[in-house]
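To illustrate the input format used throughout this study, we show a single complete record. The first block contains the structure-token representation of the backbone; no residue identities are included at this stage. The design step must infer an amino acid for every position from geometry alone.
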């Protein structure tokens, strides 16, 4: 299957974003571009966990609702959520009402605080996994050795809903890997953004 499409603006893009202008905006402005801000990283890994078993389109349509429901993914605030918040969220029609996933991201908020204390920031921890070479070989893959290692490490630290496929989708979204097709106009832009990006330490 052809992995590229040309939109009405004449720009070649990855085909997965072809279905809707909002999808195109996400592809053009966020996906594959490096992120170092802890709250955004926590949001991304939480939403990738919610996406498990669903389409990313579903999550993107509900993203603002998720942000409102989960205190803007401020993990310091989320770690204080209690049973009453879980019940509130389970009843929130604007998000994915999966009790296990809701409880997991609240649980992970506390783990994120621990990670921040141990490593200085979430960014420093996650970016320490950045692979030196392209592990996908230009192919569409669901996971890689690095995503497997990241998943295993997170699970050892007590995180939930962070399997290797979820971790690889997170790595793509946060710009740790550049999986824009080489023929996509944003592949080179993501390369340029990464070239001037300072790795968190």
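Output of the design step:
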């Amino acid at each position: 299957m052809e992995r590229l499409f040309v939109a009405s603006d004449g720009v070649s893009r990855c085909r997965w974003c072809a279905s809707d202008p909002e999808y195109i905006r996400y592809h053009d402005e966020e996906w594959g571009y490096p992120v170092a801000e802890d709250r955004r990283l926590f949001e991304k890994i939480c939403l990738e966990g919610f996406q498990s078993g669903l389409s990313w389109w579903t999550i993107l349509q509900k993203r603002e609702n998720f942000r409102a429901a989960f205190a803007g993914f401020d993990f310091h605030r989320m770690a204080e959520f209690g049973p009453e918040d879980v019940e509130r969220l389970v009843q929130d029609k604007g998000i994915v009402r999966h009790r296990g996933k809701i409880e997991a991201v609240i649980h992970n908020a506390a783990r994120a605080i621990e990670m921040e204390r141990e490593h200085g920031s979430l960014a420093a921890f996650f970016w320490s996994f950045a692979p030196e070479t392209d592990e996908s070989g230009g192919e569409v893959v669901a996971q890689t050795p690095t995503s497997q290692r990241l998943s295993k490490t997170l699970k050892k630290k007590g995180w939930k809903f962070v399997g290797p496929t979820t971790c690889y989708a997170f790595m793509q979204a946060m710009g740790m890997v550049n999986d824009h097709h080489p023929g996509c106009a944003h592949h080179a832009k993501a390369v340029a953004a990464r070239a001037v990006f300072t790795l968190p330490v």
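Structural context for interpreting the output: The chain has one domain: 4-195. DSSP finds ten helices and two strands in the chain.
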